[in-house]
Amino acid sequence: MDQLVWKTGGWFALATLAFLAALAAADFGFAVHMGIVCAAALAVAVLTMRHADYQAITRGLLKMPAPQGKYDDDPIRWGVIATVFWGLAGFLAGLYIALQLAFPALNLGIEYTSFGRLRPLHTSAVIFAFGGNALIATSFYVVQRTCRARLAFPALARFVFWGYQLFIVLAATGYLLGITEGKEYAEPEWYVDLWLTIVWVAYLVVFGGTILRRSEPHIYVANWFYLSFILTIAMLHIVNNLSMPVSLLGSKSYSAFAGVQDALTQWWYGHNAVGFFLTAGFLAMMYYFVPKQAERPVYSYRLSIIHFWSLIFLYIWAGPHHLHYTALPDWAQTLGMVFSVMLWMPSWGGMINGLMTLNGAWDRIRTDPIIRMMVMALAFYGMSTFEGPMMSVKAVNSLSHYTDWTIGHVHSGALGWNGLITFACLYYLTPRLWKRERLYSLRLVNWHFWLATVGIVLYAASMWVAGIMQGLMWREYGSDGYLVYAFSEVVSAMFPMYLIRAAGGLLYLSGAIIMAWNIGRTIAGSPLRVEKPMNDAAYDPEADRPLVAQPA
């Protein structure tokens, strides 16, 4: 009884503090955020006071099986659903702002629907909401299976999930309200940053604690990638978001850095958010789920270790390539370029290791749409990790910088590598977490694959063409020494490319909607869709001979 009183009292105290902060807020946005915190704390207090078994309620709503005892999978199931939901939200926001660039009237003349506010909403929804939930869910799944241990601190694991959802809501509403630090991928203001730091430390404690209590002596390579992602993101987040709030009851703050130091710190963070959040974390997913789906061991475990250490050492130095031809000292720009070029080889080593895991099972690409999605993700990973080092070379960067070529590069990686590998992992996890025979429909997975792939090609190709065209038009001089094209002429020339990009985004979103339907029917336990097998094509065993076996 005493424990119940303390818990309930604590949540009511937090709700009261948030309510008072909302009343005394220095600006409207801070008041709204404190209202959200107050509502969340009150909801938890009421559930605690009513002795509600919210886990049992959640299991009923989400058709979750009863706990099996061996592993703690409830936070993972919640993470799967959150990943699908936030993915749809992020893709829809992306499609809308793509249409805004083609048809500016879609800004509607309202501040809340302007491109400047929706663009960070889209990027954060896709990177941190969709990608972050996928990483947290899969890391909790993988660390338990590879360590043969239940999650350490189960209550803290649930705090990580719900605390992260609160961070997403605070960040998203802040963007719409104009609350931003103005730093790309690090827009949330100081109090949201503090909350994310608390959640992230809890995440590290749960993940690290599970590894420490493992019954499997060996730490599988996927866990090394997950751990590097968690630790490095913590360091980047804390340093880049050092700031001084104007008021403890207001949203505005000022960075601890200024001038070129602020820019370098920002892109040290920004590039390594890509390097460790969108690369190392998702490589951990690849190193577990590709071998599991292919039912083959990793092609070369030795190569995976080399891949890990070389990537970890090189990536952290490459950020200055975002600041070519700026006030950043030339030696720092050159350092970033050199390390970026060096990144090409370990990145391709990881791609080859993933693809060659199918050695002896190449026919699965034809018959298994989930494997096909994983292979396409690895192909886009290889393409992006070649294009990135190439664009970091100063001679190439002089053309590509500030153009839509960069947008095409980012999206070929984000949609192709991060998106497709996440979709494949969700398809792998759903029937296993909900104890279903298989997915509701494999044919729908095939539809999703082709819609997403064609959408990515349309998106990336149109932006490559647009970016190169932009760069060439911007630097075209006439015989009189004046620019040939006015900026408005360059913008007009982009219109067809913007339409093609929007079409690609629509296809990608359509595939994600199909995935949501397929996963929803699987979770609901709907009867499996009767389908024609996907292996009707003639099989030639000679074409599927394994290459020479590699040592473990």
TrEMBL record:
GO terms for cellular component: plasma membrane. Keywords: Cell membrane, Copper, Electron transport, Heme, Iron, Membrane, Metal-binding, Oxidoreductase, Respiratory chain, Translocase, Transmembrane, Transmembrane helix, Transport. Heme b 1; low-spin binds at H122, H411. Its EC number is 7.1.1.9. One of its GO terms (molecular function) is cytochrome-c oxidase activity. The chain crosses the membrane at residues 34-57, 78-103, 123-143, 155-178, 190-212, 224-248, 268-289, 301-318, 338-358, 370-386, 406-429, 449-473, 493-519. Pfam families: COX1 (PF00115). Cu cation binds at H271, H321, H322. Residues 80-549 form the Cytochrome oxidase subunit I profile domain. Binds 1 copper ion per subunit, denoted as copper B. Binds 2 heme groups per subunit, denoted as high- and low-spin. It is found in: Cell membrane. Pathway: Energy metabolism; oxidative phosphorylation. One of its GO terms (biological process) is oxidative phosphorylation. It catalyses: 4 Fe(II)-[cytochrome c] + O2 + 8 H(+)(in) = 4 Fe(III)-[cytochrome c] + 2 H2O + 4 H(+)(out). Gene3D superfamilies: Cytochrome c oxidase-like, subunit I domain. Its main location: membrane. Belongs to the heme-copper respiratory oxidase family. This is cytochrome-c oxidase. It comes from Sphingobium chlorophenolicum L-1.
